[in-house]
Structure formats: C-alpha cells, structure tokens
Design goal:
By secondary structure, this protein is an alpha+beta fold. The chain contains 12 helices and 17 strands. The protein has 3 domains: about 180 residues, Nucleotidyltransferase, domain 5; about 70 residues, Nucleotidyltransferase, domain 5 (2-Layer Sandwich), CATH 3.30.420; about 80 residues, ATPase, substrate binding domain, subdomain 4 (Actin, Chain A, domain 4). The strands form 5 sheets. Strands 1, 2, 3, 4, 5, 11 and 12 form a 7-stranded mixed sheet that branches. A 3-stranded antiparallel sheet has the order 7-6-8. Strands 13-14-15 form a 3-stranded antiparallel sheet, sandwiched between helices. The longest helix has 20 residues. The mean pLDDT is about 90. The protein binds adenosine-5'-triphosphate (ATP) and magnesium ion. Adenosine-5'-triphosphate (ATP) binds next to helix 8 and helix 9.
C-alpha cells in the first residue's frame, strides 16, 4: 500500500518524513548524500538549494519532452541539498540557487538565474527541487511518492498553496494536501492529539518568524487533529540576522556593507556570517572565516573579524529583534483572547 509522505519546504532547510504504520508516527527520512544532520536534533534535513546541471545527458533531454515528462521522471536536472552545496564550493555560481521559497510566495515567475541560455524562475527552481527530492527518495527506498502533505507558512496565500499543488501534480503525485507549519511543528513534537491541549508554537526560520496558538481538538472530534486558533507572522528570519552581521563587520572597519553587495564575495560573506552565528550557539566567541584574497579585497587588513555571543545579542537588540518578537507575541495573545483563549489556557 502506498504510504503517506510529508514535506516541509523551508527557506534554508527542507525535511521529508513518511508515516510509519508500525510505529504510528512520522519518521524523518535520511536521503543519503543530499541530506545533512541538524546539529541539535540530529535529524536529517535537505538544504533547500539547487545546483542546475550544466549540460543535459541523454536521459535528461529525453525526460524533458512533455509527453514523456507527464509519465516518467527521467534523468537528473539538478543536484539538490548537500550535493548542491558541495558543487558550489568556489562561491557563487549561476548554477547554484538557494532561498527560493520566499520568492515562490511573493513572485513565482521572477527569474532567479540563467544557465545555458535557459531562464529559471522561482517556480521552476521549486519544481526542480521537488523533482530531484522525489527521485532521490525513490533511489534510496525504491518507493514512489504518491501521497504528500506539504507544510505552508500560516500567512501564506492561496497562490502559494496552488504553486506547490501544481508542482506536485507535475511530479505525478495524486494525493496532495497542505498543513499549516505551526500545526506540523506541534505534531512533530510528539503532541498527543487524544487530549485537548492549547499551546504556543514559536518558529524562527530562515526568512519568517511564525508564532501561533495551536489547539488539539481532542478525541472523537471530526476534522483535523489540531488547528491554528491565532497566528502572527513576520518576514524576519535567520537570513536577516546574517545580513545584520555582515553590516556589523563592515562598520567595524569603517565601510558601508552596500559596497560589498553585488560583488562576487557577498554570498560567501553571508554564508560565513551564518556559520559564525550558528557557532555562537555553543561557543562564547567565534570568528568570521574569510580567505586571504577575499579578506584583502573586502578591505579587512590582517585581523580576523570575531564576535562574542554578547556581541551577537547586541546586534540583535540594535535591530529591534527582541522588541519585534515581543510585539508579535502580544498581538498573538490579543488575537487569541478575542477567541476566548487567555494566556493561562496556553
Ligand atoms: N544553532 C543555531 N544558532 C542560531 N541559528 C541557527 C542555528 N541553527 C540554525 N540556525 C539558523 O536557523 C535558520 C534556519 O532555520 P529553519 O531550518 O527552521 O528555517 P527554514 O524552515 O528553512 O525557513 P522558513 O521556515 O523561514 O522557510 C537559518 O538562518 C540558520 O542559520
Ligand atoms: Mg521552517
């Protein structure tokens, strides 16, 4: 019997899970070379990145013929996840695309890159990412994905759901559903849906901050096992923090980070800032890794830029992150109260 799959398409990381009848719970799927291990949870995730194949081989060309594409998924149009990152080691290459999710929501037809005379929109990149993910799942488990639930941000519009649904249909997935990301998060934490429970879900991702009050409906109720009763979202996430860090380091050497934008180094800088930020999770101090030539061209002298955890907290405070979070939660609680749910109920 076909099994039910779940995909959380994230700005930075995506994860695939499959329902296990034996254990009555969803299991995260390790997709081998395209997956990497999350530091804290040790769960396998697929970095949301695509590296478009520079040249089609025979099977890939054949697989692009519409009448064939409708029936079979042939060849490989791109590398995804960890394999995409590995191929982009030299820095920013046109073949490499990441952070396509926010664009899929805001402007799906916007061209993200051009490779070999072909333009790739956010919609096309998403389709390719999902395609190669489905193919990889098949390579690893010899199983076809026929039924799929995808998580969507609470403030996403119908058009975003329609984009995902269309991409799934093109992959031959017949059973397609969506679930609100906070509900998926709550369920993922092993929430017992047999009991009525109200909780606050806080999800700080790569590009969005979503907070929601989620309530399990309890035993014997029809419909979904859990529902979002109040939600607030901000277009603010880890990607913004990386930009703030780059600006911080520019200021330290009396430069304006705008000078760096658009240079070949900018993406590498953001990646280094991201690594430094993640380092500070378990270290009091971390340094920005920049190569010799890169450092020189950017204007860093010999010094290795470093930042302490307190320094990071200060940067976050300067940009109003904590105030934004507080305000968002307050608004959420007001919204929940208008539906009869008080803070003590959570
Ligand atoms: N240990 C850590 N300390 C600080 N930040 C971290 C740590 N680990 C990951 N991050 C940051 O979390 C962000 C990614 O979070 P997550 O995987 O939840 O996002 P996502 O689901 O891909 O994005 P979204 O839900 O917004 O689409 C990145 O900005 C990453 O740098
Ligand atoms: Mg997420």
């Amino acid at each position: 019997m076909a099994r039910w799959w779940g995909l959380d398409l994230g700005t930075t990381n995506s994860s695939l899970a499959v329902w296990s009848d034996a254990r009555s719970e969803a299991e995260m799927v390790d997709l081998g070379d395209v997956s990497r291990q999350m530091l804290l949870t040790e769960s396998p995730v697929v970095p949301s990145a695509v590296y478009i194949n520079p040249k089609d081989d025979f099977w890939t060309s054949l697989g692009r013929i519409p009448s064939i594409e409708r029936r079979w998924l042939l060849g490989r149009q791109a590398y995804i996840g960890r394999e995409a990152g590995d191929r982009n080691y030299e820095g920013r290459q046109p073949n490499y695309v990441e952070s396509f999710k926010p664009l899929l929501a805001a402007a799906p037809t916007k061209v993200m890159t051009r490779v070999g005379g072909r333009a790739y929109t956010a919609r096309e990149i998403t389709r390719i990412f999902m395609r190669e993910l489905v193919l990889q799942a098949r390579r690893i488990g010899r199983e076809k994905i026929n039924a799929l639930t995808m998580a969507v941000p609470v403030d996403s519009f119908e058009t975003y759901r329609a984009e995902l649904s269309a991409a799934a249909a093109r992959l031959g997935i017949r059973g397609f559903q969506t679930v609100d990301e906070p509900v998926a998060a709550a369920l993922g934490y092993g929430l017992n849906t047999e009991r009525e429970l109200t909780m606050l879900v806080f999800d700080f991702g790569g590009s969005t901050l979503d907070v929601a009050v989620v309530r399990t409906t309890g035993p014997g109720k029809a419909g979904t096992p859990a529902e979002v009763v109040a939600k607030q979202g901000l277009s603010l996430g880890g990607n913004n923090v990386d930009v703030w860090l780059v600006e911080h380091f520019a200021r330290q050497i009396n430069l304006n980070a705008n000078l760096w934008r658009g240079t070949e180094w900018y993406q590498a800088l953001l990646d280094s800032a991201q690594a430094l930020k993640e380092d500070l999770f378990h270290r009091e101090e971390a340094s920005l890794s920049i190569g010799g030539r890169m450092g020189k061209e950017l204007g860093f002298r010999d010094q290795q830029p470093t930042l302490s955890r307190d320094g990071l907290i200060e940067v976050l405070r300067e940009h109003g992150l904590y105030a934004d979070i507080e305000r968002t939660i307050e608004t959420l609680l007001t919204e929940a109260a208008s539906r009869g749910i008080e803070p003590r109920d959570i």
